[in-house]
Amino acid sequence: MKAEYDLSSMKSRRNPYAAKLKKPVSMRLSEDVVEYFKGMASEAGVPYQNLINLYLRDCVMKHRKVRIDWPSGKT
What we know:
Blueprint: H1 31-44, H2 48-61
C-alpha cells in the first residue's frame, strides 16, 4: 500500500445511496411508547430507533392511515 495516492485525476460521481440517507428529527414520544420499543428492540437485538423506523416504514409501504374519532362534544 502506498503512503500517498494521487486522486486528482479521478472523476467524481454522485453517491448512489444519498437518496436513502436518514434525516435526523426530534420527536416527543410518551415514556411508555419509548419503553415499549426499547423492550422489543432489546429482544430483537437492534437499536430502538431503527425499530421505530422499521415500524413507520411498514406503515408507509402499506399506506396505513390514522383514524382519529374525536368526541364531538355534542350530547
